[in-house]
Specification:
mainly beta; Immunoglobulin-like; 3 domains; 5-stranded mixed β-sheet
Length: 468
């Protein structure tokens, strides 16, 4: 007679993977880490972005070019220190040597000082404020703005590694007071199509055009210094579209001076790399047994390395009847443990600090598996000289676990070790040839994957008739 045994196996379900990501059109990659931070405000186009230890900060800019104030960069002063060169600053820019083209920038009344470093620009020395005299503790401010002349597509313009370097003199005696550097915030501004406004502002009194300031240190024994030699403005200029030129100018002020602009110089910007969202794949949909309710997830996430080269990965549950624990939760390869049977949607998210993307995977945890159904066929009697009989065995399964192969095998139960020959021992319907008279018990076993379901089946008798 047939014996039945129950086992739980889980069914796999196919599901189409859905990719989704959101791209902020102005959240592009910073290329220098500065120790300043601008206030984080809403960012309609055009947008000003600056970077600091706290990340990207954006402020809205109307088409007319007005903007709220930036926080100032910290003071940097070097007594008798060498002037920083653009070559040293380029080391702060990821992949800069392959991105930049030579550019040149000069101001009215100043000399052109084009360096040999690809992508660097230099303007000055120039004294826009005349013989400006400063006492220790005075606030010295500096900054820059730009405009794109004529017709042009929407463009993102970026200034990095910018500063103004002064070679002050002591008012008393006229000796050199060393070097004074005003570091300027990195900025990135998205300019609307065909806009010819000055950004971040065309007004030299607007706080937004002073991207840096310092408190003047004691450089002449507590006496005053003079900036009559002026300063030199240096920066790296890039744009997402380089089919047009950019007009640039700079200024500085202190002691309530108006901060007159330098002359305007037309510059062809270098190419700016644009940050793109990560590419995420949560892996194939799958089905698992419950219990134990554990799934190995094989997610991947790749990125372009912008803006900071770090990519944060996290798993989360989108839907499902029970809690899900990820071990670990911050890696593509992880184990998800389910608290209840059911259908779950899990999400893998990757965030490069400015843009993020995600992908979903479906996992079905099922406890409704049934054992294979097996029949060895009816008992039979045969009479010698017939030695071979047809076996009408049958075996079926519910298909769980998904991907498992159901195999069948005939064996001899008794007499133990009897040399019965099967036509195909792994076919449910086959033949058996017996060595002689007697009573034989044969067994058909059905095995889905590695889980065997053995079923002792009907007796097959073979007797020899004898008549006296």
């Amino acid at each position: 007679m047939a014996m039945r045994k129950t086992r739980l196996v889980h069914r796999f379900f196919a599901r189409v993977l859905v990719f989704s990501f959101i791209i902020d059109p102005v959240a592009l990659s910073p290329v220098r880490a500065a120790s300043h931070q601008s206030p984080g405000l809403a960012a309609p186009s055009p947008t000003l972005a600056s970077w600091g230890s706290g990340g990207l900060n954006k402020r809205s800019l109307p088409v007319g070019g007005q903007a709220t104030a930036l926080h100032r960069s910290p003071a940097v002063a070097h007594a008798a220190a060498p002037v920083p060169k653009a070559a040293a600053r380029l080391a702060l820019l990821a992949g800069s040597t392959s991105l930049f083209q030579p550019t040149e920038l000069a101001g009215a009344g100043g000399s052109v000082a084009t360096t040999s470093v690809s992508g660097s620009i230099s303007m000055g020395p120039q004294a826009m404020e005349g013989d400006l005299k400063l006492s220790p503790g005075a606030i010295l401010k500096a900054g820059y703005d730009f405009t794109i002349p004529g017709t042009h597509p929407e463009d993102t313009v970026q200034f990095t590694s910018a500063n103004v370097t002064f070679q002050p003199l002591c008012v008393s005696g006229g000796s050199s007071a060393g070097t004074l550097v005003v570091p300027l915030a990195d900025t990135r501004i998205t300019v609307p199509q065909n806009s010819t406004a000055w950004y971040p502002s065309g007004n030299q009194k607007d706080p937004s055009v002073y991207q840096g300031s310092i408190s003047v240190p004691e450089l002449c024994g507590g006496g005053q210094i003079t900036l009559k030699n002026g300063g030199t403005f240096t920066a790296i200029l890039q744009a997402s579209d380089t089919s047009h030129t950019v007009n640039v100018r700079w200024h500085y002020s202190a002691n309530g001076s108006s901060g007159s602009w330098s002359g305007t110089k037309t510059v062809t910007p270098a190419t700016l790399e644009i940050n793109t969202a990560p590419v995420v794949n949560a892996g194939p949909d799958q089905a698992i047994d419950f219990p134990p309710g554990n799934a190995s997830l094989h997610g991947t996430a790749t990125d372009d390395g912008l803006p900071i080269g770090a990519l944060a990965i996290s798993w989360s549950k989108v839907s499902g009847p029970g809690n899900v624990t990820f071990t670990p939760s911050d890696a593509g390869e992880t184990t998800a443990s389910f608290a209840a049977a059911g259908t779950y949607i899990l999400r893998l998210t990757a965030d490069d600090s400015k843009l993020s993307a995600s992908d979903d995977v479906t996992v079905v945890a099922s406890n409704a598996n049934a054992p294979p159904q097996v029949s060895a066929g009816p008992d039979q009697d045969i009479t010698l000289p017939v030695q071979t009989v047809a076996l009408a065995g049958e075996a079926s399964d519910d298909g769980r676990p998904v991907g498992a192969t159901l195999t069948t095998t005939w064996t001899v139960v008794s007499p133990l070790g009897a040399p019965v020959v099967f036509g195909n021992a792994h076919a449910a319907a086959t033949s058996a040839t017996f060595p002689g008279a007697g009573e034989y018990v044969l067994r058909l076993t059905a095995d889905p994957s590695s889980e065997s379901r053995t079923h002792p089946f009907s007796r097959l008798r073979r007797e020899r008739q004898a008549r006296c």
